[in-house]
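Example 3.2
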Amino acid sequence: MSHYDDQRLESQVELKSGRPEHEPTKALRDTVSMHAMVGTNQVDIASVLDIDPKTLRKHYRSELTLAVAKANATIGGALFNKAKSGDTGAMIFWMKARAGFKETNVVQNENKKVKTFSDMYDNGPAEDNDDEWED
């Protein structure tokens, strides 16, 4: 290899500039987890860390994947504990959301005869037929 080739290789190494490789730390992992748990989208999380969203997914896949499950477990556990302690609202919510209970309204139709406008005048004035009307 000639001296010219050595210089060319060195210049190619120097040309490879840009950002250094991202190095995740425990603090950054905790930040990603916290944001993902509360529903911050990946573009915004990447902006907070000043990295590209692809870099975020590359280095923090586990935190992004597990965050929703951890959040659901945390809130679900708190709700469960409130329900166990007697909080009626929490009990009702739990039974609707987890046990499939639902509130239903029952409408009963009693087959009462409803008089029409023509019925009212076929039998004379209304005041003469007050005993026929049901409330």
